[in-house]
Amino acid sequence: MRKYQITKKKSIDDEENIQKKEVEEEEELGEIEIGDLEEKRGEEDEEEERPVREMEIEEGRSIESAESKKSSEIDIAESRSLEILLRKRIEEEEHKKSLTEEEKELKTLRDTYSSLLKEQQSLGLKNTFLKKRMIKYLKNKKGNNAISVSNKLTQDKTLYSKKLLEFAKKNEIIKEERKSVATKLELLKGQNEDDSDNQETFLKELFDKQRSIGNKLMYVKTGKLIKDEVINDLITRQKIMAEQMYQVRLECIKVRNKVIAMKELVRFDHMGSDFQLMDYEKLCIEKEDFSSKIVDRDLEVQRVKKKTKDMYESVKQMEIESEQLQEKIHKETEKLHQLEINMQEIREKLNYLKEQRYHTLEDTARMKQNSGLLTMPTLLADFEETKNAVKEASQQLKNLKMLYEHQKQNIKKLKDILNKKKSFLTIK
User: Fold this and answer.
1) What is the C-alpha to C-alpha distance for residues 98 and 94, in angstroms, rounded to an integer?
2) Which one has a higher pLDDT value, 356 or 204?
3) Dist CA 14 CA 17 (whole Å)
4) What is the pLDDT, as a whole number, of residue 349?
5) pTM for the whole thing?
6) Cβ atoms of residues 112 and 104 within 8 Å
7) Which side of the chain, N or C, has fewer Cβ within a 10 Å radius?
8) Segment among 29-43, 89-103, 205-219, 350-364 with least mean pLDDT
9) How far is residue 421 from each of residues 85, 246, 251, 320, 424, measured CA to CA in Å?
């Protein structure tokens, strides 16, 4: 199978390389043919001008004027023929560009076809490998896991059927593209035939023009026209040389293609500077082994992913709990801040009370200093007793004064009565 695939790839690559080389060779041939035609035209001009120059040296100035007129007419005719040639060549190059664009499209289609073939082969290998792995997996697992695996298998089958439908659609598209490419190739072949016919007619016209120009030429020495036989010999020589050049170029292209094909064969035999096809097959086997190991690693990675998912969920829960704790901490910090504010207010009040207490203590100390006996309780008690005694004595004194005043008044009254009695007695 691998050898068949390799040979198939070789054939596709060979076709693509051959097409590229044909296009490049056609372009090179076009450029070389233009250069060769110009060189031949220059050689023909030199051959035609040689007898004219010899005759110009021998004859006088009178003949030079006539020959200059003839040479100017010849130059005009040659310039016209060159213009026609260049126009034809430009048209051919434009046609070749259109052909190269179509060939590029063909190349892209072939590349897509080869890439699709590679994808199909890789998908087939993956499918067989995955089937084997699924069989082993189902053998090792229990019934419950088998149910889940069966669901996965149904999903894989649906995906596989979708991929097959897509592949069928791509095959239909490729068939349609092949048909379009075949029609384009037929059209290109017809255009190529038309171009070859046009080229032959163009060459016939060119040779006829050369023949007509040669019939008008004459020898300067003799003044006779050049013979038709000489002109025909020159034209036949030109045709023979062109055919020989064409054959040599074809042989060169064939040899070059053979060399390139041999190099490609050697390149396929030796995959690189030191590798061969056996090494390539060994590497393919190692690739399959490594792919199986990669699948095992992928399963391990899936397990680790599940663990990481569980850990991620637990971490999410922890994050939610931490957010709740942070909210609680935020609330408690707000409460603490409020308590600190209250504590600051209470401290300010306490400081105010302390200041008042200090002032009261100072006032009491001053009052004590100013009070005198108030600081001595025994003296104060004696003072109170004496005070009470003084009060009683003052009261007695007041009472005595009252009695004194009352008695004094009574005495005055008695004196008045006595004085009245004395006066009355005296009067009697």
Assistant:
1) 6
2) 356
3) 5
4) 92
5) 0.26
6) no
7) C
8) 29-43
9) 200, 206, 205, 129, 5
